[in-house]
């Protein structure tokens, strides 16, 4: 595993960013991109640099930013080898945020709230098919798998069949409907993958996971700060009875809930699967997902 660092800096007020920032650090076009465009009278001047965290150019580059009084936006994430991904106990399934479809409570999906937190909705148990926004149907075209903004995982019927026949544990499926404002919902040739197993609380040694607007229940809402790679850790005993598909106890993201489910923005758990599930997705030619191994503390 290696950690990648990405810097983004607005360079509108820097006369020659190549010379003042990049060249002293030895950063050429292989790691840096300088843009200075005029689009309809608006100037877009910025630079983007991506380096591995162990690259000797990194401290020099940071020194240049500092010397010029710049505080670039910074994002860090881990990159794993195929061997590491195959050897992981569980992988966080994460779908490209720009490609997600809108679905959930506000589209007509129903939930049992009897064991959920009355303040944030964490623990809401889905009781119906998944309803997604009919306007987002083009986002499913040409795809075999997708996800809602709330990490509900969706697969086409054929992939659902393959998953069902693969002897995976802890997996079940629900129907998927497109909801429209002016006509009734339409059932889609897609299925939602549902997890039966909820993991215990994550280890406090997890990093890159922070309380965002914490609820008194302690179960929501978490977020992942961009500048720290997300590393979800569990104790060995926590993963002793995992299934092939699981969800986290913690719920992430924005919350807006006043007791009315049909208007709710619920937080959502992360979806964790074994490498076997990833392999089935890859064999089906699925793209758009990131897979991030969890860490297991052996002591
Ligand atoms: Zn709560």
From TrEMBL:
Domain of life of the source: Bacteria
Protein name: Uncharacterized protein
Organism of derivation: Polyangium jinanense
């Amino acid at each position: 595993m290696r950690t990648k660092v990405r810097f983004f800096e607005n360079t509108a007020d820097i006369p020659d960013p190549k010379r003042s920032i990049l060249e002293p650090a030895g950063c050429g076009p292989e790691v840096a991109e300088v843009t200075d465009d005029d689009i309809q009278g608006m100037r877009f001047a910025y630079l983007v640099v991506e380096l591995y965290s162990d690259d000797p150019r990194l401290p020099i580059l940071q020194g240049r930013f500092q010397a010029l009084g710049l505080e670039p936006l910074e994002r860090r994430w881990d990159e794993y080898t195929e061997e590491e991904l195959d050897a992981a106990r569980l992988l966080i399934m994460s779908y490209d945020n720009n490609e997600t479809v809108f679905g959930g409570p506000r589209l007509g999906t129903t939930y049992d709230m009897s064991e959920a937190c009355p303040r944030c909705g964490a623990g809401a148990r889905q009781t119906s098919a998944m309803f997604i926004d009919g306007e987002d149907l083009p986002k499913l075209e040409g795809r075999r798998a997708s996800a809602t903004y709330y990490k509900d995982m969706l697969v086409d019927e054929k992939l659902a069949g393959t998953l069902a026949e693969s002897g995976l544990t802890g997996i079940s499926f629900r129907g998927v409907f497109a909801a429209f404002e002016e006509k009734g919902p339409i059932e889609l040739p897609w299925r939602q993958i549902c997890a039966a197993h909820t993991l215990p609380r994550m280890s406090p040694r997890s990093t890159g996971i922070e309380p965002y607007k914490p609820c008194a229940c302690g179960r929501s809402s978490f977020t992942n700060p961009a500048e720290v790679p997300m590393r979800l850790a569990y104790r060995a005993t926590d993963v002793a009875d995992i299934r092939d598909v699981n969800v986290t106890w913690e719920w992430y993201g924005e919350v807006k809930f006043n007791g009315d489910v049909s208007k709710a923005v619920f937080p959502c758990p992360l979806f964790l699967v074994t490498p076997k599930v990833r392999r089935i997705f890859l064999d089906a030619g699925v793209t758009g997902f990131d897979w991030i191994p969890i860490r297991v503390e052996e002591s």
